[in-house]
Design goal:
Elements lengths: L2 E5 L4 H9 L10 E8 L20 H31 L4 E8 L2 H12 L3 E5 L13 H9 L3 E5 L11 E5 L4 H11 L8 E8 L1 H5 L19 H18 L3 E8 L2 H12 L3 E5 L13 H9 L3 E5 L3
Parallel strand pairs: 1-2, 1-4, 2-3, 4-5, 6-7, 6-9, 7-8, 9-10
Antiparallel strand pairs: 5-10
Helix pairs in contact: 3-4, 5-7, 8-9
């Protein structure tokens, strides 16, 4: 983990994204940048070459240009204030701020690509009062199309414990193992707790019969039921975390993975769920897997969607 990009729009969820970084296990020294996107079209400079369309120099166009510039300047000031706050919270980080005029989701995606971010952090919802039920449209698009890992933060609810609790979902896929390794490679607060969870449904139960499936490597000739291979897979993931000095337990559930993961995370009062961007049967497709999408959309806590580096 070298470069962190934080998308910030001043909303309560954006504030939560900054606060949430203290529980993300990030290193004490790293590069971070705060990006605020002005949702405007920025017309060309009035002193430069003018576009070839009627009334390009009209009073209305000049006013629109001035308004867009003002919104962009406001976004620059907002990102700078957030960057100053981030420096206070993480004094050893190298922090800078950006602002651009673009559609919010596209602005974040473009900056993540150009800046070569390792992780993008943003709130689950933006400033719109319409985005209340599940995941906001900007967060949804960034999670689905970002080239790197994405952490979607939600305001922390009251819990009955003081320790950081992290749930890691695994199905034996390369991306889920990358999520396990990502957790193992972080620097966590003392006494943090970790739980590796796998959920057995019909698809998971039959995956070990696929010779090309990653899950098949956990099967043994002496196994009488597929559950034995899944337990072996869970233990392997847990060992990666325990070898990193983390206190970890495992949990094998049965049912609908989307429902079980979310139910258990809420019951355990997890602070975050780590999940691979793509699952076992996603092949080489680049699109976000349905499991990661569903968990990110409905979780009560923060969700980090991990893409292998």
């Amino acid at each position: 983990m070298k470069k962190l990009l934080i998308a910030y729009d001043g909303s309560p969820c954006a504030e939560a994204a900054i606060e949430d970084l203290a529980k993300a296990g990030l290193p004490p020294e790293m590069e971070a940048a705060v990006l605020s996107v002005a949702d405007v079209w920025l017309p060309s400079n009035p002193d430069g070459p003018q576009p070839d369309f009627p009334a390009a120099n009209s009073e209305a166009v000049r006013k629109a240009r001035a308004q867009a510039v003002a919104v962009l300047e406001s976004a620059k000031a907002m990102s700078a204030r957030a960057a100053d706050r981030l420096k206070t919270l993480h004094p050893k980080w190298k922090v800078e701020s950006f602002a651009c005029a673009d559609s919010p989701a596209w602005g974040v995606l473009n900056q993540a690509t150009q800046w070569k971010a390792d992780l993008v952090a943003l709130g689950s919802h933006g400033r719109s009062v319409l985005e209340r039920l599940f995941l906001g449209s900007v967060s949804q698009k960034v999670a689905a199309e970002c080239p790197c890992s994405v952490r979607i933060s939600r305001p922390r609810k009251h819990s009955h414990h003081m320790r950081t609790r992290v749930m890691v979902a695994t199905d034996g896929s390369e991306d889920s193992l990358a999520a396990v390794r990502a957790v193992a490679g972080r620097v966590w607060p003392e006494f943090s707790e970790f739980r590796v969870v796998a959920v057995m449904d019909a698809r998971m139960e039959t995956a070990i019969a696929w010779p090309e499936s990653v899950a098949a490597q956990w099967a043994r000739e002496q196994d009488s039921v597929s559950g034995e291979a899944l337990v072996r897979m869970l233990e392997h993931s847990a060992k990666i975390l325990s070898d990193a000095g983390l206190a970890v337990e495992t949990q094998l559930l049965k049912g609908d993975p989307k429902h079980e993961l979310l139910t258990q995370a809420e019951a355990w009062e997890a602070d975050a769920i780590f999940i691979g961007a793509r699952g076992l049967h996603h092949g080489g497709r680049l699109a976000l897997g349905t499991m990661a999408s569903a968990v990110a959309a409905r979780a009560h806590c923060s969700v980090e969607i991990v893409r292998p580096g």
